[in-house]
Amino acid sequence: MEESVKILTDESEAKISSCATISDLNDIRVRVLGKNGELTALLKSMKDLPPEKRPQAGKIVNAAREKLEQAIAARQAELEQIELDKRLRDEKIDISIDMRQPASGGLHPLTIMRNRITEFFSSLGFVIADSPEIETDYYNFEALNIPADHPAREMQDTFFITENILLRSQTSAGQVRMMEKVKPPIKMLSPGRVFRADEADATHSPVFHQVEGLVVDKGITMCDLKGILDLFAQKFFGKNTKTRFRPSYFPFTEPSVEVDASCSQCGGKGCRVCKGTGWIEILGAGMVNRNVLQNCGINPDEYTGFAFGVGLDRITNIIFGINSLRTVFENDVRFLKQFN
Ligand code: DAH
Questions:
Q1: Is the CB of residue 285 below 6 angstroms from any atom belonging to ligand 1?
Q2: Which amino acid residue places its CA nearest to atom 3 of ligand 1?
């Protein structure tokens, strides 16, 4: 009996220490220590021994059982540790790997310029105002002193939706809406899209952008206009920039001017950018026509005002050195990325 227990114990210990998985270890446990296990069978066979030998045999079997249980528990702990180490190794995340950065968007150059311009005029106390892109003939033309038969309508080939409703051809329509709503003093800046039935080429597009400015108060003169536009030109084209006013004609201003800035590229000497003239045309402006003030319920004997209209696309192209309107509207990502 003692001999059989020793053999079983030695064999089992060898199997336990060489077994490679927890499930194999469980099999060994069942086969040796289970209800029908080999050691249990030896315990059961004690009834065949003479009674005086049984206590001694019982001790031997129990000691063997305890020894094997400990061996199993120790091996189980080892195997669990091996398994954990393996999982830690296999599931390790290498945080040192270079991740591809997600591409981040940027602002469109027109948006960049619009923001810069609105920020500049806000800092001078101008209110930024929106007005509709779908307008009536009245706001786009009639109230701006451009009646139905006026030849100035020819200059702006307009998209009419009905006889009376159109896509605004100029942000000047916003002046009228503002003066109808707000009594002077008024200082307004209104950026937005305008539409004209033009064929697209390097300098034309059926959709483009303007920024309209309007100031109305008592005693406003052309000197105020000149002062503001000088500041504007110096802000965007450099400290030494000068402006010059050339007489022009717009139905809604009298007198009207076209405003040039001295070329920042050559300082006025003449270069490719200014086509050799030393000057770059930047906007149209003038003193608000009496008729327009009157149409908006403002007494022209009491109030005067100036207005100006900047071509946003043009200014953007000059500032960023872009040579075609098409490039600005095509939205080729390789082009847009340069402004990130
Ligand atoms: N609306 C004019 C255009 O589209 C630009 C303009 C000129 C606006 C003179 C003005 C202005 O407010 O005073 O050509």
A1: yes
A2: 170
Based on the fold, state whether residues 185 and 321 are members of the same structural domain: yes
Q: What is the mean pLDDT of the chain?
A: 93
Q: Is residue 103 part of a domain?
A: no
**Best substitution site from 140, 296, 308, 313 to test ligand 1's pocket, by max atoms within 8 Å of Cβ?**
308
Q: What mean pLDDT comes out for the span 6-10?
A: 90
Q: Is the CB of 307 inside a 6 Å radius of any atom of ligand 1?
A: yes
Q: Nearest Cα to 12, choosing from 278, 27, 23, 234? A: 27
CA distance 21 to 83: 9
- Ligand 1 contact, 208 CB (< 6 A): no
Number of domains within the chain: 2
Query: Which run of H or of E encompasses 316?
Result: helix 312-320
- Is residue 57 domain-shared with residue 185, that is, in the same domain? no
- pLDDT > 70 fraction of the chain, expressed in percent and rounded: 100
pLDDT tens digits, 310-331: 999 999 999 998 988 889 999 9
Burial of 201 from C-beta contacts in 10 A (0-12 / 13-18 / 19+) = exposed
Determine the pLDDT at residue 152: 80
* DSSP assignment letter at 51: G
pLDDT at position 154 over 80: no
**Cα 173 to averaged position of ligand 1 atoms, centre (Å):** 10
For residue 310, the domain's CATH number is 3.30.930.10
